[in-house]
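Marked as duplicate of an earlier ticket. Keeping the data here for the record.
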Amino acid sequence: MNADPADHAATRNVQVLPPWRRAVLKVGSSLLAADGGGLSPRFALGLAQFVSASQAAGREVVIVSSGAVAAGRAILPRVEEAGAAIAARQALAALGQAQLIGLWQRFFERPVAQVLLTHDDLRNRRRYLNARATLNELLRLGALPVVNENDTVSVDELKLGDNDNLAAIVAVLIDAEVLFIATDIDGLFDANPRTHPLANLVPEVSELTPEVLAMASGSGSEVGTGGMRTKLEAASKAGAAGIDTILFNGRRADVVRALGQDRLEGTRIRAARSRIAARKYWLRHAPVEPGAIVVDAGAAAALVQKGASLLPGGIVAADGDFRRGDMVEVVLRDEDGERRVARGISQYSAIDVRRIARRHSREIEAVLGYNYGGNVIHRDDLVLL
């Protein structure tokens, strides 16, 4: 039997993965759906072993998993997905979500946490911060977050099947270094390998030019709703935040095992700039809300000289009416006048900042009745001016 030329292409191009500590692994429906409907552990097992090996090495992984609709279809096979009403597909997603989480939980001793998001959750500033805080806390507790789009209430996203882009947004959300996208082909090819047997694998993409985007085609499977085009769109979003994207064949056990040894047989799409540079650029140029957080000299020195987070104890006042999640400036006022010190994303509204000013971080919950953490602005969300 002649070997698939795509397999040969992938085998010839073995790369070393970039160093990473935190990653998002996106798994599509084509890797989880069983032939007769429902979910199959056939390919999920190898991916779970990669996650376990990464966790054993001290790394953190968040899974973005499709497959809820496919799982629900097995429970109610009478519902025809082709041309079905959106409500029927949403019902399938609701039925299948528990099955999907159950599939992943069977592979891990640590708890698996279900996190359902929509793009609206990630566009809204307050929801964005809440989602990030939840995911970070789950990782801190040693749980494995499994994120899926909330298809039971999401209409536009369900029709688009946009989990590739959702995975990129989650990667930005948790400050990941790399986005792994498991697919059912070896990576990006210069032509569709299913219709062009001599198509060549592209092992590395340094820039997503129009010529590279032209290589992408539509959906490649009957159960998946995203194709290579959506994966390149996701890579573009991740790359703008300094995150590399890795495309690999999740059906090939040898390729998945190689990832656990930091070797890639697939396509690496390099980020446009470093992760730190991308985030600092965004923090420096994002629109600032009217108002400011006024700090004393000690807090200003801690921010500038020590790279510290902004704590409530060093805050003197809050100007304006900004909300939690807004970009605000940090200023120092003294006998010499007012000087801009920094800008960053406030974890608390102006009203709350006024109430906790000059307080210790441990007093926040007693004063407000709730807390979003001990930092008013975390150092990762702050850039010096």
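See parent ticket for discussion. The longest strand covers residues 337-345.
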